[in-house]
Description:
Helices cover 90% and strands 0% of the residues.
Amino acid sequence: MSWISKAENLLNNIDQKAASLIQQQQLKPIEESESDNTQKNLSNSQGLPKIPSFSKNMLVLSKTTPKKSTRSDHTDYDSFSEKSMSSRHTVVENDDDDEYSEPIDNELKKAPSNESFSAEKELATVKILMSELRSENSELKHEAEALNEQLKANASVMKNDDLESLLAILTDEKRDLTMMNQSLESSNSNYIKTISELESSIMKYQQNENELKQKLEYARNETGDINTELQNYKLRAQNQLQMKESLIHQLKLGNQVAEDGQTETSSDSTTLQMEIDQIRNERDHLQSELNLMKKRIDESRNFIEKMEHKHRIMVSDYEDKITNLDETIQQLTMQSTNYEDEIRLQKQELTHVREEMLKQKTHLTTKLHEKENELKRLKNAYRESQVNAEIENRVQSLTQSLITKQNNLELVTAEKNALRLQYEKLTTQHQDLLRQFRSQRPQMLSSNETDDVKSSTSNFLTINPFDSRVSRRVKRAYSQFDQLGIRFSAFLRRYPLARVFSIVYVCSLHLFVLLVLLQSTPSQ
């Protein structure tokens, strides 16, 4: 921050010097000698009328910038931004100085030689100052760019540090969350254990409650018996006391009457006194027993109250637990009802599927019985339609005779086929020779020859030039089928075994078709 303050001080000094030089220029007697010429030149020029405003602006900057330089040593990044803005303003004004210097140079060149000597010196000093300002400005720009880069790097470093700190915080939070998860799992397991323990303790408490109820009932019965005994004892004691007090009163009256002259009653008085003392002792003893009984009754009452208080507390706890258990039981009952509904639906579906399967089974069994009946009927018909043994013997004899005749025919046909093959070979050789002859001597056939060729071929298979494409294709296909039939018949004539196999195959096909027709029933 110190180099910024130094740069601002330099700029302020340069601004003050430039302002003083411009003021000196204005105070010189150049305007007196050639005021008219200079005024015209100045009015035509663009830069010189702005000189006073330029000097004022520079003076204003020189007044304002030192305040910022004094603050620069005690401020942070925000003050640095303000100072950089102020330095930019000074740079812009220095650029304005460059713009104003050019018209000043032009005007001073136009001035006469006797007045321009001092002005040239001042211009030289101004130019030197301006060059220094430019160099310092460029240095300051470079330094500002370097500082901006450093600031960006510092900002990126700060961002990286922030991100690293965030990562550390997130990792710590993740660890905390994992620890919390583990603690929650452990607490959940502990809760499950405590629930099981509470259930067992509830059972124990219920047992204790039943025992305490029995004890309370027993204590209440005992206290009732004791109270009845006390009341009876009180009544007895009161009756005895009343009787003895009446006796004492009578004895006192008797003693007062007998004091006058009967000495014999002294012994009786002594006996009465002894009886009175005994009665008093008995009374004191009874009072002490009454006090003891009252203490026992109070203790039993306190014990009963304590037991009743405990019983109430336990009853309230058990009622809360019972309500919770009732809620859980209700939830379980709801779930059980839902499951029962699902099971019912599945059972209904199973019953429907079973009914359908039974229907299909019955239908298929009926069909099977019908088919079995049809098979039995067909078997019976086939047995009835079988030929007798004599007919079979005749058929065998006929087949043997047929076989002998076929063998003879095969021999004859074999000879015939051999002759046919020789004939075909000769015909092919004859056709080849004819083709060679025609190729050697291409001439038009005479009418007789064409008639012979036409007579050798059938009119149906001959292709005319007036035929259409369809008719030509049909004739070609028919001729191909005819050739195939001729070749197949020749093959059968040559080989008698093939002829026998073909006959057997045709007979078996006919028999199979007959069986199918007889066994099949018309569909309703």
